Amino acid sequence: MALRIQQLQQWKQQGRPIAALTAWDWLWARLLDRAGVDLLLVGDSLAMVALGHKTTLPLTLDQMIHHAAAVARGVESALVVVDLPFLTYQASEAEAIASAGRILKETEAQAVKLEGGYPEMAATVARLVRSGIPVMGHVGLTPQSVNQLGYRQQGRSPAEGDRILAEALALEAAGAFAIVLEHVPATLAERITRQLTIPTIGIGAGNACDGQVLVTADLLGLSDQTPPFAKTYADLGAAVIAAAETYCQEVRSGQFPPPPLSAAAQTHQSIGS
Ligand code: KIV
Ligand code: NA
């Protein structure tokens, strides 16, 4: 059975860190779920790591639903949370409900995530939560605002830090069940984590958050550009290239496939097996 959002809040109280990763299709989701990842985020970073876009902005709701449905088909245990793509929730609360509603109706995911903590967004979160849709917040560096913020660390000045803390508190008051803190100073993330009763999930936000999330392509060495705060746990990119190179060589040299066995050898093999 899938993890419930209440469990995350219990884990915060117990000091049991939450381990989250992103997923973009059935193949990867299945493996990550088997590894025991607590929360799988179908992040809109899939626009970059799975679709080759330069930013998250071009991703459409239909594309997200296509990917989220595939991820959810591969997951038995993890909580599946889906990013609302850029401009599928900002215009109005009704738009946010329609978009989040499509995600929950057309995929087996349990929750959505949206970016921003300013008052209008907190009101949208409250409206979604009252409609029965669990929502995760996301403050600090919000990549859907890349054209305003770039990919710089956020919350460096005391005033900016206070604003991000206020946004996180507003999202909690609106009913968000957890909040992603992206690329903010560790001291700010710690301050926010202490003041909230809901869990914080950090990415580039130090070690005091209630959980951590990484983009799986970075974790597995599949990205061309890995942010400085990410850790690469396996170099699958190099492994894939080496395997495919060997295959190409063997096909071109006639080493693969091997010549057919003689009829006698085939009979012998089937008896032996
Ligand atoms: O889209 C994404 O991968 C995210 C995480 C970095 C939190 O939003
Ligand atoms: Na995202």
From TrEMBL:
Query: Where does this protein hold 3-methyl-2-oxobutanoate?
Result: D44, S45, D83, K113
What is the main EC category here? transferase
Q: Where does Mg(2+) bind?
A: D44, D83, E115
Q: Where in the cell is it found?
A: Cytoplasm
- Known EC number(s)? 2.1.2.11
Q: What is its main location?
A: cytoplasm
Q: What is the free-text note on the cofactor?
A: Binds 1 Mg(2+) ion per subunit.
**Protein's UniProt keywords contain Iron-sulfur:** no
Matching InterPro entries? Pantoate_hydroxy_MeTrfase, Pyrv/PenolPyrv_kinase-like_dom, Pyrv_kinase-like_dom_sf
Q: Which cofactor does it need?
A: Mg(2+)
Q: Active site at which residues?
A: E182
Q: What does this protein do?
A: Catalyzes the reversible reaction in which hydroxymethyl group from 5,10-methylenetetrahydrofolate is transferred onto alpha-ketoisovalerate to form ketopantoate.
Q: What family classification does the UniProt entry report for this protein? A: Belongs to the PanB family.
Protein name, per record: 3-methyl-2-oxobutanoate hydroxymethyltransferase
As recorded in Swiss-Prot or TrEMBL, the protein's gene is named: panB
